[in-house]
Amino acid sequence: MNAEITTPTAELVQHIRATPRGARVARHLAAEQLADWGYPQDGEVSETAQHLVAELAANAVTHGRVPGRAFELRLLLLPEDTLRIEVSDARGDRKLRYVTEPDSESGRGLILVTLLARTWGVAERDVGKTVWAEISLILK
Ligand SMILES: Nc1ncnc2c1ncn2[C@@H]1O[C@H](COP(=O)(O)OP(=O)(O)OP(=O)(O)O)[C@@H](O)[C@H]1O
Ligand SMILES: [Mg+2]
C-alpha cells in the first residue's frame, strides 16, 4: 500500500486465488462488503465499484497471474468520502498497456476503468504491483 494515502476508516483485505472464478469472487466480496458499509448492491456506488473490481481482478488473473500466487483485493473507505479499490498481483515484469486500437477486441477494461474512476494508477510493490482506482462515495 502507498505510504502517502490517508488512514482508512474501514478496510477489507482478501487474498483470492488467481483464477477466473477468483475474479468473480472478488466482485461478490466487494458487493457484500459495501452493503455492510451501507452501500446497497444495486446502488450507484456499489455498481460502479463492482465494475471496477471486476475489470481489475480479471486483469490480475489473466495478465498479472503467477502460477500458485494469489491476488489481493483491498477496499478502503477513506476520509473525504472516497472509496479506494486496490488489486495487487504478483507480476512485476509486465507493464499495463493503455492504448486504444479501434479494431481490437480487447483493451476495453482499462478504458472502462478510466471512465468510471475519478482517478486510477499503478504502484510497484516489492513483489508485483498494485492497480488502484478511487471513486467518490457521494452520489451525483
Ligand atoms: N494486472 C495486469 N498485469 C499485467 N498486464 C496488465 C494488467 N492489466 C492490464 N495489463 C495489460 O494492459 C492491457 C490492457 O488491459 P485491458 O484490461 O484494457 O485489456 P484486456 O484485458 O487485454 O482486454 P479486456 O479487458 O477488454 O478483456 C492488457 O492486454 C495487458 O497487456
Ligand atoms: Mg482487461
Question: Descriptors for this entry?
Answer:
alpha+beta, 140 residues, binds magnesium ion, 5-stranded antiparallel sheet, Heat Shock Protein 90, 5 strands, binds adenosine-5'-triphosphate, single chain
What does this structure look like?
- The protein is an alpha+beta fold.
- It has one domain (10-136): Histidine kinase-like ATPase, C-terminal domain (Heat Shock Protein 90, 2-Layer Sandwich), CATH 3.30.565.
- Helices cover 31% and strands 26% of the residues.
- A 5-stranded antiparallel β-sheet has the order 1-2-3-5-4, covered by helices on one side.
- A hairpin with a 4-residue loop joins strand 4 and strand 5 (129-136).
- Helix 1 (20-36) runs antiparallel to helix 2 (44-62) and helix 2 runs antiparallel to helix 3 (109-116).
- The radius of gyration is 14 Å and the shape is globular.
- It starts with 9 loop residues before the first strand and ends with a strand.
- The model has no long low-confidence stretch (mean pLDDT 92).
- The chain binds adenosine-5'-triphosphate and magnesium ion.
- Residues 55, 58-59, 109 line the site of magnesium ion.
